[in-house]
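Please fill in the sequence for the structure shown.

STRUCTURE ENCODING:
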């Protein structure tokens, strides 16, 4: 029942968007759907340095996010012996780092640019990683330090992901159009 309702609602929204929103690209290039044209477009994207560099940067940021997300439950529940409820609350705080980072990024990206925001994000992730490693090596890693450095890493991830995505897809503006 619910799946059909969602499907019908989605189809209705798609139909409304299709009927009432105009194409954003006034000079839309209509290429035939041929295998050679498709492969040439695909190879052109893979050869584009801007696209490849930004996809790699986004991949690194997502890898850091996945690593922290995978390791955090083990460390917080086994090393610090937190109860699941406490772990959940601390995870909400750590995840709030991405929200804070997104808000800061939205404000500063227009002032200093995407490239600098990406670099600042990588520096933040690096500081968090080195800090966690150092504090672990000297057996001085407290729960507050662990949470704070995770929060910092999430802010860095929030600086990297939207900017690398925007830059990677900027090469498609003349083919697919854009809003704005």
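FILLED IN BY: designer on duty
SEQUENCE:
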């Amino acid at each position: 029942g619910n799946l059909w309702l969602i499907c019908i609602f989605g189809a209705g929204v798609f139909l409304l968007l299709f009927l009432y929103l105009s194409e954003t690209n006034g000079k839309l290039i209509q290429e035939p759907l041929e295998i050679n044209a498709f492969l040439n477009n695909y190879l052109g994207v893979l050869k584009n340095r801007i696209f490849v560099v930004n996809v790699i940067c986004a991949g690194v940021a997502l890898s850091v996010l996945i690593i922290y997300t995978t390791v955090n439950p083990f460390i917080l529940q086994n090393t610090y012996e937190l109860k699941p409820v406490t772990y959940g609350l601390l995870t909400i705080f750590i995840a709030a780092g991405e929200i804070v980072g997104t808000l800061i990024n939205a404000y500063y990206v227009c002032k200093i640019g995407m490239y600098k925001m990406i670099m600042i994000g990588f520096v933040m992730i690096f500081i968090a990683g080195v800090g966690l490693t150092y504090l672990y090596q000297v057996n001085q890693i407290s729960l507050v330090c662990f949470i704070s450095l995770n929060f910092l890493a999430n802010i860095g991830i929030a600086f990297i992901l939207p900017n690398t995505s925007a830059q990677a897809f900027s090469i498609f503006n003349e083919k697919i159009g854009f809003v704005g």
